[in-house]
Amino acid sequence: MFKSVLVASTLVATVAAHQNFHQFWVNGVSPGYQVAVRMPPSNSPVTDVTSNNIACNVDGETVPSGVETYAANEGDKIIVNWDVSSHPGPITHMLFGPVDDASLESGVGAGWFKIDELDNVNGTWANQVIANAGGNYTFTLPTGLESGDYLLRSEMLALHAAETIGGAQFYIGCAQLTITGTGGGCNPTISLPGAYNATDPDIYIPDVYYGFDAATYTAPGGPVATCGASGSSPSMATSAAIVTSTAASSGTIPTAVASSGTSKVSSAAGSSSLAASAPTTLAKVTSKAASSAALATSSKAASSAASVTPTKVATTVATITTGGATPSSTGGSGAVALYGQCGGANWTGATTCAEGTCTGMNEYYSQCVSA
Prior knowledge:
Layout: H1 2-11, E1 21-26, E2 29-30, E3 37-38, H2 53-56, E4 69-73, E5 77-82, E6 91-99, E7 109-118, E8 120-121, E9 124-125, H3 126-132, E10 136-140, E11 148-158, E12 169-180, E13 186-187, E14 190-192, E15 226-227, E16 241-248, E17 251-258, E18 280-281, E19 285-286, H4 292-295, E20 317-318, E21 335-336, E22 341-343, E23 352-353, E24 357-362, E25 365-369
């Protein structure tokens, strides 16, 4: 039942319930922390699904974006890093494009298509799977993409207040990519805003605390798209996932990895072909304002290639239960950080806020918010 899963999720407390998408890796290589990502002015959620902010968050539609664009190929493994959150809900990824210059595209309107979705794994919500992996999540860019610039939209939807209309909280971040592909368009496509309605059953859940079965839940935004005449449909990872644990320069970084929606994927050794490489940081960023020499690092320079082969990487596979640094509980003493849980039915943790005021969102959930 949703209630028991929800309570279990919130009892595994986090330092900050509000969150942002900060960094990504392409086949284990990152442009850097908050590089090639349109960062919002705060870590607060978007709750008005009819606003332009639903596309790429607050100020995300501002162009030129002033954000650099990073090179990738169809079929590449992408790792995204989010702040850890206790709020139960799914994660989805969409692309907008192809366009000539991602930095000049607001992302507002038609042209988005879903490429990845994880709702829950055996009753454990995606947010907790990602929390167990230290805030990291891995998925694969589809094959059959047309070459060009794209906006990559990562969304974590928090459902802890979804019993009221407008209570669902959308945490959104958009990265800019130049993708080299071999296919054509992807379908179906959606508009943002437009595809979401505040009363949709996957956004407004009046019985969220009263017997709702999380196993029946599917994230908003329609089905995962099919790309290119000879391309493939990316997986909708709603039934199974694995966690990879790979060594990086700063230590071990566990990662939640999207799996195929057509077959169960074991988390035991032997599934390494689905996992991502060790995340590292290496400058491979392209900028539309850069010199032609710098632009040579972009995948646009390889647009004449007949095919694109993603880099093959090795990894060590671990089970979900062993992967990652699970956020520690606030326990029964001490002060709760801003946006952390501070009360509600069945809550046994701290009730005093280190910052802000403990405010009831509903009878089951209270959190520390700014005064």
